[in-house]
Amino acid sequence: MTEYKNSEKDNAQSSIDATIARILAADEANTNGKATRFVADQEHLNEDARQRRLSILGDRARELADSDAHTEHDGEQYDLFERRSLRRVEGLSTELEDVTEVEYRQLRLERVVLAGLWTEGTITEAEYSLRELAALAETAGSTVLDGFIQRRGKPDPGTFFGSGKAVEIKEAVAELGADTVIVDSELAPSQRRGLEDIVKVKVIDRTGLILDIFAQHAKSREGKAQVELAQMEYMLPRLRGWGESLSRQAGGRVGAAGGGIGSRGPGETKIELDRRRINQRMAKLRREIAGMKPARDAKRANRKRNAVPSVAIAGYTNAGKSSLLNRLTDAGVLVENALFATLDPTTRKAVTPDGIGYTLSDTVGFVRQLPTQLVEAFRSTLEEVADADLILHVVDASHPEPESQIAAVRKVLAEVDAHEVDEIIVLNKADAAESHVIDRIRRREPHAIVVSAHTGQGIDELKQLIRDSIPRPTVPLQLLVPYADGEVVSRLHAEDAEILSTDYQEEGTRIHVLVRPSLAAELSQYQVED
Ligand SMILES: Nc1nc2c(ncn2[C@@H]2O[C@H](COP(=O)(O)OP(=O)(O)OP(=O)(O)O)[C@@H](O)[C@H]2O)c(=O)[nH]1
Ligand SMILES: [Mg+2]
């Protein structure tokens, strides 16, 4: 309660806080567990409140739709044009061709109502989570009509929300003409069915929504296979939930007849057939993904052999990772004010201000409650982060509370064993951030730097910091390179070597240089005494 009062002081004018105030007032009036509508009741709506109702979630949605500011560092953004011209075709993107009659839902989200439980933390956190869900829904291509938060100790085992709340959601769905309810958690299969029976439209959970976005955005063969595998993994237990009673019947009969080989055929239910086909498909996908690994490993091994230091850009979705890559290397990678714009990792060559080469990789963004199926499916991609010499952990400092995003990212990094890699916290979007947020995080994170990929603020310092943080060539050599072998000199200039001095002598170029051990061996023939 006191936490809320503080934030009210900071931001007294905002419509969100007005909403929160209403929620809290209603919450105090109601006993704990009673439903709280996220917006004012219809009969109490004056014109002002009506406007506010439209803007509570719409703010985020509009932000997503309108502001796609690009800088000249973002290049031509061909991918963005392509993505815009490839907007979703109903029902196609998430269809699973190989699987018939499965309970898998084609998401086809159009007009949606959001609903979340507030079980712990402050109402402000519950609010952020719902706003993020709105942004996710927008990214998936749907229109968000309304949102609800219910204060409740723990979810109802049957219907997730309390029955009163569920009825209220149903009324809003009918009133607004929504076709989908999106719940801000992962639902048990039975809870989803229970809730669907009440609200009478399709119910999707956060995991299903994130999987849908990934399915829409995956572009490379590997990315597509990874997402499909994750979708299947998500689907399988839900399929079981649906078919449980059927399977039990068949199993019972098999059991009574003594069971065993041959007795399964006729008694086999459709659900088991589907499950088997999904398992087969998953095994095939796993093989395919494993098959793609050698190429990736070879690339990585090549980088390792050349001992090129690698820097991975990681961070919460929409933090500005791709913008930062573009700013540092002019790579022209897709930048979009949407969640999960980047799914296929891009690696670019970069050089430090003093000419040391390194690779810089953009990665898939993280999100709170990133489906575990996705972490698993993207493991090979994420492992590259674990392999890096340095992680630039990009944080959207214009968010009022980036701490929870930092925590969510570190959780995923730990899952892929990347938590021991050196990390620089890059507080991005400084141009749009509140200074008290930046100060607060800098106090907590000594290894932080403030930048703006848009204005270029702090970018030179960041480049210096990268220079100081990556492994540097250490082997000192005195070389005398005949003028006929000029390409060796240019290679030293282009590659990973730190040239300390150059002297043009009669027999050739005399160079004092620091190189990596691998290169030192190759250059032995040119070595001379000091
Ligand atoms: N104001 C401001 N906006 C920024 C800055 N950097 C990035 N943005 C905006 O933030 C949005 C997301 O940028 P991206 O670079 O696509 O973010 P990302 O982290 O790669 O996102 P995903 O790939 O979706 O995870 C875009 O609308 C950018 O224009 C910045 O320094 N200042
Ligand atoms: Mg990106």
TrEMBL record:
<dbReference type="InterPro" id="IPR027417">
    <property type="entry name" value="P-loop_NTPase"/>
</dbReference>
<keyword id="KW-0479">Metal-binding</keyword>
<dbReference type="Pfam" id="PF13167">
    <property type="entry name" value="GTP-bdg_N"/>
</dbReference>
<comment type="subunit">
    <text>Monomer. Associates with the 50S ribosomal subunit.</text>
</comment>
<feature type="domain" description="Hflx-type G">
    <location>
        <begin position="309"/>
        <end position="474"/>
    </location>
</feature>
<keyword id="KW-0547">Nucleotide-binding</keyword>
<comment type="similarity">
    <text>Belongs to the TRAFAC class OBG-HflX-like GTPase superfamily. HflX GTPase family.</text>
</comment>
<keyword id="KW-0460">Magnesium</keyword>
<dbReference type="InterPro" id="IPR006073">
    <property type="entry name" value="GTP-bd"/>
</dbReference>
<keyword id="KW-0342">GTP-binding</keyword>
<dbReference type="InterPro" id="IPR042108">
    <property type="entry name" value="GTPase_HflX_N_sf"/>
</dbReference>
<dbReference type="InterPro" id="IPR030394">
    <property type="entry name" value="G_HFLX_dom"/>
</dbReference>
<dbReference type="InterPro" id="IPR025121">
    <property type="entry name" value="GTPase_HflX_N"/>
</dbReference>
<protein>
    <recommendedName>
        <fullName>GTPase HflX</fullName>
    </recommendedName>
</protein>
<dbReference type="Pfam" id="PF16360">
    <property type="entry name" value="GTP-bdg_M"/>
</dbReference>
<dbReference type="InterPro" id="IPR032305">
    <property type="entry name" value="GTP-bd_M"/>
</dbReference>
<dbReference type="InterPro" id="IPR016496">
    <property type="entry name" value="GTPase_HflX"/>
</dbReference>
<dbReference type="Pfam" id="PF01926">
    <property type="entry name" value="MMR_HSR1"/>
</dbReference>
<keyword id="KW-0963">Cytoplasm</keyword>
<comment type="function">
    <text>GTPase that associates with the 50S ribosomal subunit and may have a role during protein synthesis or ribosome biogenesis.</text>
</comment>
